[in-house]
Structure formats: structure tokens, C-alpha cells
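Morning F.,

Quick status update on the modeling queue. The single chain you submitted on Monday has been processed. Sequence for confirmation:
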Amino acid sequence: MKIKLVKASELKSEILKKLYYENALSCAELSVLFGKSLPIIMKAINELIDEGFVVEVGYAPSSGGRRPLNYAVKADAMYIMAIAMDQLSTRIAIVDLCNRPVAEVEMVELLLNNNAVALDKLIEYINAYILRNGIDTARILGIGIGMPGFVSAADGINYSYLDAQGQSLNEYIFKATGLPTYVANDSSVIALAEQKFGVAKAQEEVMVINLGWGIGLGMIVKGEVFRGYDGFAGEFSHIPLFEDGALCICGKQGCLEAEASMLVVVEKAKEGIKQGRLSTLQSVIDDPLKLMGDAIFEVAATGDPFVIELLSDAGYKIGKALAILIHIMNPKTIVLSGRGAKGGKIMMAPIQLALNKYCIPRLAANIEILISELGFDGEIIGAAILVMENFDQEKLIVNTKRIQMNT
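C-alpha cells below.
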């Protein structure tokens, strides 16, 4: 176990975060994790129980002596608003401290590109969602938002979308909602979700590919999200792979995104059907883009040859780009996550084929490629993690007072 030394004043909030991530732990396990004596840990746990944040959840397996009690975070002690955005739509949820929705997850259409009112519309949706579900804002720890674009999590600025006239989005949304707000790139929050709760749990070196309308990359390096010098690391989709390729939205030619993203797969499906290719997608060709994107995976599961061909082609190109990533980062694990994880089994073979062709065997030999079990929920979970990652002793004191005032 990795020991995390913390100040006495921070101990309670750190215990709460550790229980959030690990589900249930004993005092002995927490003592080892934080390098604190059992009496100090027990005192902090008892205070958290009295404050309504922690509960006893039965006994841990015996190691030979008396079975120790396990403790877990009290799921409904507080809530988190988690928001997952892509270029076309936004999902809004309020989850408990076990990441379970306490109200129906709502999806709204919200185009980000060239939309000057997108930020104000987002705030309108947030406030309406809270009001409609009757949840007291005093019980919401904060808002976590995963979003596409060049996002500086440190400054709270998205340089691609949601223009706040140079202001921090964190501050702008806080002023409009009264809730502490934290924003980050969607692929980074998905990587957090996979490393904390997904197939890459507790791994130190992980590359998470976000297969959405674009193709994002979240990097876990030495156990932490790696964001680079300016916070923009992970622009995997703009690796220039193809000479004289299609024009990308970034203004360059030959980017991976312009050749293999879900947006491109949908457009190729439409074009192919118009040119006479046979596919059961024919019935949804005139549907909105988002609905056709969802239909692609449903149709692929039935064995539609044209759709499998399109996903396989995208997978091979992604595999070619992964070869570059492997040569640079030499990760232990690569996770296929996001909306497109549903097509991961189809893409896996062509990805491996591309790695066999383009990757040095010694570098690729020990890499494990996994398909996310969180899938489309990964960004919601990652957005909730953003709030917990920023949870500290000061916020614990404030929220303890809020709970006491409302009981």
C-alpha cells in the first residue's frame, strides 16, 4: 500500500475521499494508508460518523484475530452534480457519494461549435434541473463538468467552447448557481473514472482512449492525470497521420479525427447508403446525427457487414495512431472508453493488426488493451470525481454546518 502522509487538519477529508474511492475500509487499513496511529484514525472516523458522513458496514474478513469493522461513506450524506458534455449534447445528473443517480439523468441538445449562448443555456439547464428535482443546493457538494476542447482545468477556461469573456468557467458558473464548479477536458475525466472505478483501477500508467464524436486521450502517469505544461496534453485526435487527408475542424489536413472519429463513421455510413451500400441503417439515415450514432452500435451488434467494415476501418486507423503513442509513452494499459466503447470488440482485431504492423514488438509485447466497463457512464463518473478531488477540510466543515442547519 502507498502511504499518504497528511496533516491532522486534513485527515477527515482525506479519509472521506479514500472511502469514496475504495468502497469500504477498516481503521487498520486507513492507519497504514495515512501513516497515522489507530487512536487518531478512530477519533476521525467517529467524528465523521457523528457528522453523518460515514457509516459502519459490517466486518472485514478475519486475518486470525478479532474481525475489524469496515467503514464506508454514507451515500446520501451529500450529492454531486455531474455533467458530461460533447459537441452535440449534454448529460446532467445528480449522484450520491456512491456515484448512483438520485434523479433521472437528463440529456439535452446543446451544440457547442459557433454557439455564443451555449454557456448561458448550460446554466439555465443546470438551475432548471435542480429545481425540477427538488434537491436542496445545500446538500450538493459542487458541480463537476467534463467538456471537449482545449480546457485548462487549473484556470477553469475552455479555449474552444463556452466563451465566458476571459473569465474562469468555475467562477462564472458558481456565480450563476451558487455551487462550487470544476471543469476539465472530457477525456481527462474519463481517464480518472477508469483509474478510480474502472478496468484500470489503481494502475499507475494508463492511456484511456475516449471514443466519442472525436477521439480523445486521457493519460494517467505515475498514478495522476497528466495534463502537460499548459493543461492541453492528450490531443490524440490531431495526430497528423494521413497525407492529403480530409480537412479537420482544427484547420489541418490528415488528422486522426478527420479519418476515424464517430462523426466520420456516421458521415461515411450516410454517404455509403446513398451510393447503394446495403445496410439496416437505411431506416435511420434521415435521423439526427446523435440518434444515427447510437444506431451504429445497435446495428453492428446484429452483424451488419457495412457497419462492421466502417468500424473496422476506424479501428485500424486508431491502431496506427496508438503505435505512435506506445512508442512515446510505453504504457502498461490502454483502455477503449467513452460512447464508442460499445464497438470496442469489433475494433479490437483491426487495432491489434495495426499494432502488429506499425509497433516495435518489444514495446507492444506487454501492453494490455481493455474495453471499458463504464462506457458511456465514464464521463458522468469522472465529472463527479472532479468534485471529490477538490474536496478539502474547509469544504467538509462548511458542509457539516449545512447538514446540521438542515436537520
